Amino acid sequence: MIVTTTNAIEGHPVRDYYGIVTGEVIVGANMVRDLFASITDLIGGRSGQYEEVLGRARHQAIDEMCAHARALGGNAVIGCDIDYEVVGRNGSMLMVSVSGTAVLV
């Protein structure tokens, strides 16, 4: 399935539009990860633990959106937007949401 942030796919004209599709994933940040992230923040550098969780959540959300597009008869999603939001009590969870338009190309 083609997923793009653009509103068209060069060389692939849109034959049909099926509507907005979404995917959402909420992940919790546990205390061990928070501790390692705090240490990384103190000494500098990147937090590999958070990056790994964030990447996995993003891929799961995109997969969910693509599954919705397929269920509608689409073979591509255009205009894809990815958003990240901290949710839950004391910002203890991270939500990754993606949306786009399911199309047939």
Automatic annotation (TrEMBL):
Coiled-coil annotation: which residues? none
What does the similarity note say?
Answer: Belongs to the UPF0145 family.
Q: What is this protein called?
A: UPF0145 protein GRI89_16660
